[in-house]
Amino acid sequence: MPSLPTHQGPNQLFQAQQAKIAFNLAHVDAVVYLVDAADKERFAESKKELDALLADDSLATVPFLILGNKIDIPYAASEEELRYYLGLSNFTTGKGNVNLADSNVRPLEIFMCSVVRKMGYGEGFKWMSQYIK
Ligand SMILES: Nc1nc2c(ncn2[C@@H]2O[C@H](COP(=O)(O)OP(=O)(O)OP(=O)(O)O)[C@@H](O)[C@H]2O)c(=O)[nH]1
């Protein structure tokens, strides 16, 4: 694997991270994307990186589980807010058992969670598991 350059500016580091991601995406069953729901100032950055993954051809059919973490913090974003700020309002495909097998639709959902409180992510992983072949 190519090593990442060190002592680079933010843009070069971002590009290097993208290159590393692209290099690693040969066999991916699913993507779990963890967002800090309490850090609203970084939602734009989270959206940018998520958009790059969603645009990656090798992930076109791969289920995406978006976890909005830290909901134990009172000022954390709600699921609706996170959906809006990540630009996913028209792209989530539904919780529960939604059969997407005969469609070209990539499974994508948001589940809110608190890793420290051990809550929320179990439902997300259960949702995702139905789409892993
Ligand atoms: N309150 C709360 N804290 C959490 C939760 N999950 C992780 N943390 C804490 O978040 C801290 C990790 O820092 P983050 O800033 O979230 O992540 P990071 O990857 O280190 O840093 P960034 O890439 O800058 O976001 C640790 O102190 C964890 O204990 C959670 O569900 N609730």
From TrEMBL:
Location(s), subcellular: Endoplasmic reticulum; Golgi apparatus
One cellular-component annotation, GO: Golgi apparatus
Any one GO molecular function term: GTP binding
Keywords, alphabetical: Endoplasmic reticulum, ER-Golgi transport, Golgi apparatus, GTP-binding, Nucleotide-binding, Protein transport, Transport
SMART domains documented for this protein: SAR
Binding site for GTP: N69, K70, I71, D72, V115, V116
Lineage top rank: taxon: Eukaryota
InterPro entries linked to this entry: P-loop_NTPase, Small_GTPase_ARF/SAR, Small_GTPase_SAR1
GO biological process, one term: vesicle-mediated transport
Record keyword Transport present: yes
Family affiliation: Belongs to the small GTPase superfamily. SAR1 family.
Full protein name: Uncharacterized protein
Organism of origin: Oryza meridionalis
